Amino acid sequence: MADYVPKPEHKFTFGLWTVGSVGRDPFGAPTREPLSPADLVYLLGEVGAYGVNFHDNDLIPIDATPAERKQIITDFRKALENTGLVVPMATTNLFYDPVFKDGAFTANDPRVRAYAFQKTLHAIDLGVELGAKIYVFWGGREGTETDAAKDPVTAIKRTREAMNYFCEYAIDQGYDIKFALEAKPNEPRGDIYNATTGHMLAFIETLDHSEMVGVNPEVAHEHMAGLNFTHGVAQALDAGKLFHIDLNDQAFGRYDQDFRFAMVNIKSAFFLVKLLEDYGYNGSRHFDAHAFRTEDYDGVRDFARGCMRSYLILKEKAEQFRQDREIQALLAEINQDDGAMDQFFGDFTKEKASALKAHPFDRVALAGRGLKYEKLDQLVIELLLGVR
């Protein structure tokens, strides 16, 4: 039995906004006093995290003076040095301040769009200064409550203009950084543009520097829409576009809950971890979640440890799945292939198509074969319940 202790090679990261959540919600005031960014780094060092990520204003308040900015960065750097934590990812807060009430890159007011560009350029500089190699874009306000207010085609064009601009800026500055786009269907806007990972993957292919841009899918955002998150991640992996990932949990169809990883949907979390490990995903495992509002900072530490521990437990379960003789024998039976059909697959040729069209298939016999998926799924349940 493993001890489930996080190690640097696991690349477990948290955002300042995650462990720094003060327990505020739409119906209630904060339940925890805020900690400084440096103090949050020390907290993450205590629980064994690998890295810390931030929005620009998580680290430096939007109205900070130059002197305040300098002191915050000095204290933050010192905390990183003392704990050994790194900064793998950074992002821009383009959703909290009232100026972004109608969006940032898609706002109808060109002055707001220009300010959003300016804020993002400064934030990219800050991220690179502190070591970030991935820069995430979440368009939390890039949407609308009424389609009378915005032309969606214009919104797409404005978003494309922004991403092309930032790619060119990074190239011009010589930055070693890639961009990752994060999708969400709704909340805080009534509808958010590029609502799913699939939308984002299609959009990326229209960019001038698509090689620099990938996705940052989040469990809760896809579960809000009732989608299978593992399938979205698989699409991103297959496209070579999984640059970053946000792990948390979420009851299907609810508001954005940001629960501790694997808290709600253990089976879904298992198949997600298995997919990431099977395909050798080498990026950060970022936990974009929050401790319950009921907790003090000891509870926040419990929350952070729980996220990492659950991932490692499920990683062990994935290895058990691969080593389980009955499961593997059943999979071999389900996927049996005597090679007889190989002649019809692969690259198209006229001869191959003609042979396939002429081949006799016993449709009734094929349909009558039981696939034993019930048994296989039950074996997975028993593995997860600890009886295998």
Instruction: Specify the oligomeric state.
Output: single chain
What share of the residues lie within helices? 40-55%
By CATH, the architecture of the largest domain is named Alpha-Beta Barrel
Structural class by SSE content:
alpha/beta
Taking strands numbered 1, 2, ... along the chain, how are they ordered across the largest sheet?
A: 8-6-4-3-2-1-10-9
Gyration radius, rounded:
23 Å
Please give the alpha-carbon distance between the first and last residues. Answer: 13 Å
Structure notes:
It is a single chain. The protein has helices spanning 16-19, 37-47, 56-59, 66-83, 110-129, 152-173, 197-204, 219-224, 229-238, 266-278, 297-323, 325-334, 350-358, 363-368, 373-384; strands at residues 12-15, 51-55, 89-91, 134-138, 143-144, 178-182, 191-192, 213-215, 246-247, 285-287. By secondary structure, it is an alpha/beta fold. It has two domains: 8-319, TIM Barrel (Alpha-Beta Barrel), CATH 3.20.20.150; 325-384. An eight-stranded parallel beta sheet has the order 8-6-4-3-2-1-10-9. Strand 3 (89-91), helix 5 and strand 4 (134-138) form a beta-alpha-beta unit. The longest helix has 27 residues, at 297-323. The protein is globular and about 80 Å long. The relative contact order is 0.10.
Provide key terms for this protein:
single chain, 388 residues, alpha/beta, TIM Barrel, eight-stranded parallel beta sheet, two-stranded antiparallel ribbon, 15 helices, 9% strand, globular
